UniProtKB/TrEMBL annotation, chains A, B:
Presence of keyword Transcription regulation: yes
Protein name (Swiss-Prot/TrEMBL): CRP/FNR family transcriptional regulator
Pfam annotation, one family: cNMP_binding
Example of a GO cellular component annotation carried by this entry: cytosol
Organism: Rhodovulum marinum
GO MF annotation list: DNA binding; DNA-binding transcription factor activity
Taxonomic lineage of the native organism: Bacteria, Pseudomonadati, Pseudomonadota, Alphaproteobacteria, Rhodobacterales
Transmembrane region(s): none
Keyword Transcription regulation included in the entry's annotation: yes
Residue ranges of domain Cyclic nucleotide-binding in the record: 23-140
Domain HTH crp-type stretches: 154-232
PANTHER family found in the cross-reference section: CRP FAMILY TRANSCRIPTIONAL REGULATORY PROTEIN, FUMARATE AND NITRATE REDUCTION REGULATORY PROTEIN
Length: 248, 248
DNA sequence: CGCAGAATTGATACATCTCAAGCTGGGTGG
DNA sequence: CCACCCAGCTTGAGATGTATCAATTCTGCG
């Protein structure tokens, strides 16, 4: 919760918490030091807008700490989240002048930024960066397609269960906790942000959270602290294949 | 309509219709000839399944001619299309063993295939391929995010109008026709495929097509041949920003 | 304490789904 | 050459899930 001074100032890449997962993951130490020379940190408070869609964007960045969202808004105000950015995720597109989406910090946020020009030049000379970026982009594309199934075909209850499962998984992977039985985590999103993620209204999100609580699938303490007594039970509510076992 | 012998047999890369847009777009002639050595063509009939999700996939490929779809199916049969593959689009993921989605030919289809192993080896030695693949993947990710807005927030009528606009644009770009005024094209998708694309039922697709027809936004001859008398009118039905003009 | 933002809950409206019946056009076999 | 058939499509009537509008109720915080 507390933002340390560390996270507000330049950190040595060697000590970076996302060193092995971010766009720089495959860099050798000499490549890393060249990156180190052009990087700078920026921080944002919860709720702050990092950039508006259509604005000129002269940097790209990695999320170091905190959570941000990508979203699109229609003229009449309908908005759809199209990306959830967690530590190590990459923001911005090399070769693009303006932001294609609104980027918003949902928690306090630290990003490791590179001005676009120098970064693009480094990409040309450092295949490791482009390779890693390709890998990350393919992963994001897979996630986007999973998300499309959710948006197009799942019921409200399945959508909520799926989102909780996604967050639980991510949280467990940070804590190296096993993904079964009892799981405990904090929701990093407001009901409204959940609604924008899921293509629902905030009222429907609230109702379905209450329903899952009533049915014992989850236990809530306060609005944000979630306990999942039985993760498999939660999975069975997502509508996804959850037997997984039995190879043919 | 008629599939020529040409398209069923090996074609010289220099004569390839997707030469300048596919994953090989940036290759120099020596790189191209190495690709040429490992490529082979495969063709499928309309309706045929190219590969099932979960099946072993030992090749990657470019669509040369025709249209294919990527889709996901839930246990109970609900299906969502997650990709529409047009000529020059790339299928498969380097480094992945099994297919993540069902791939289906919706028209007769010709693909230019590479066995995965040799292709991956070439990617290591040929930065141009990885660079182009990154670019294409980023484009697909943008398209997926546009699609997410459609799935999550648009009405049935807006969804249909958006799909028609997408197909009209693609068609016009192939014919170098201007994107305004009267547009004519053929729908390459059945009502059911449209429904799977849009996260609707086929009945709703049919009703909204009828409504757009009744309102004069489109004219139908038969079920597949579409005339759009006024493209701007169609755009205004998509819910997207359509003034576009006025830079601030 | 009391306010403001966040969340819950209720009543009702409405868009889309579901189930069901019929239509259409092109191919086929008698 | 006609009758039939079938997949693809349209249309209708009613059910249902989610949105909308409107009160409350929480919760953290100045």
């Amino acid at each position: 919760m507390a933002v340390t001074d560390q996270s507000l100032t330049q950190t040595d890449c060697a000590d970076c918490p996302i060193r092995h997962r971010a766009v720089c993951a495959r860099c050798e130490s000499d490549e890393l030091s060249r990156l180190e020379a052009i990087k700078y940190y920026r921080t944002y408070e919860a709720g702050q807008t990092v950039i508006w869609s259509g604005d000129r964007m002269d940097f790209v960045a990695s999320v170091v700490e905190g959570i941000a969202t990508l979203s699109q808004t229609m003229e009449d105000g309908r908005t759809q989240m199209v990306g959830l950015l967690l530590p190590s995720d990459f923001v911005g597109r090399p070769g693009r002048e303006t932001a294609a989406y609104d980027v918003t910090a949902t928690t306090s946020l630290t990003m490791c930024c590179f001005r676009k020009k120098p970064f693009e030049e480094m990409m040309m000379r450092t295949p490791h960066i482009g390779q890693r970026l390709l890998e990350m982009t393919l992963d994001e594309l897979d996630a986007a397609r999973e998300w499309m199934l959710l948006l197009g075909r799942k019921t409200a209850r399945e959508k909520i269960a799926s989102l909780l499962a996604i967050i639980a998984r991510r949280d467990a992977s940070l804590k190296f906790a096993p993904m079964q039985g009892r799981i405990v985590f904090d929701l990093p999103l407001t009901r409204e942000a959940m609604a924008d993620y899921l293509g629902l209204t905030l009222e429907t999100v609230s109702r379905q959270m209450s329903a899952l609580k009533r049915d014992g699938v989850i236990v809530l303490e306060g609005k944000r602290h979630v306990t999942v007594p039985d993760f498999d039970r939660l999975l069975s509510e997502t509508g996804d294949d959850n037997d997984g076992g039995m190879p043919a």
